[in-house]
Amino acid sequence: SKNDKPNFDITLNKKVEVKIHRYEKALFGIDTADFQNGLKGIQQEFLPFLAANLDDTVNVNQLYEFVSDTQLISLYNETMKVFPNLEKQESQLSDAFSRFAYFFPDKKLPSVYSYVSDMYYELPVVKNDTVMVVALDVYLGADFPIYSRLGLPYYRVRCMAPEYIPVDVMKMLYFDELAPVYKQKTLLDRMIDGGKMMVYLDAVLPNTPDSLKIAYPQKKLDWAIANEKNIWGFLIENNLLYSTDYATQTKLIQDGPFTTGFSNDSPARLGIWLGWQIVSDYVIKHPEISLEQLFNMTDSQQVLKGSGYKP
Description:
Elements: E1 20-22, H1 23-28, H2 35-43, H3 57-68, H4 70-82, H5 87-103, E2 111-115, E3 125-127, E4 131-135, H6 145-149, H7 154-157, H8 165-177, H9 187-204, H10 210-213, H11 218-226, H12 228-237, H13 246-253, H14 270-285, H15 291-295, H16 300-307
Parallel strand pairs: 1-2, 2-4
Antiparallel strand pairs: 3-4
Helix pairs in contact: 5-8, 8-9, 9-14, 9-16, 14-16
């Protein structure tokens, strides 16, 4: 049947409690009249940002300039309006991290920090081995006036909203810890690859709407569901599944306002959306295979066949 979801109902054996360390609040909260001591006072909690020698006035002055920049102060104030606290995000991430730990017990989970990045929208979530950092000023909501001045397309700005934080954090965790690295040659390879990440999001964010997970407006998601058969038919008739032509693949995989070759009502990334349906069907049919095993399956043809996918 259509758009069945794998059943990821699990009993969490251990709960991970996520506390988001708010660097922006600590930093802008320092009394600038006693700035150096204030920095030293927060240094231990915020070492990922403050590993520098704070007895060196060059380092202190650099930070002082940052917190006394009027544009940044106003950005900080706006951020505090939207995020007076992060209880909602902490609770969402506690649940998602707990589920991640259940499915991938041998993977490390990072500590989470927030900051005001001065609009570092290219990488709103950054991760290294042990630390993940979220730029809150990139999630102030699509109607935040400065965003429209950045010259970004609306399909990007639409996702610069608080409800995308858990999705972006969990995606970053996937890319950093789980995403399989193998040579993707065909469109099908890239579809299945994207589908794996989407099914992973189903597993770790079961209460997040599909429209947020794939970043489609609801009516574009409805369009994809209504036209699933036609999209699949188009790929089959034009022999696109095994196409190794990068330009052809890109049309069906890259982000944008819609998918080139389809109606303007279509969402972008239809290849990824179909890959999601295929991998979902595969997981439903093969409950014995762990997510980790699934991610390491490099033969996308095997996944397609084993899914019995037929819209």
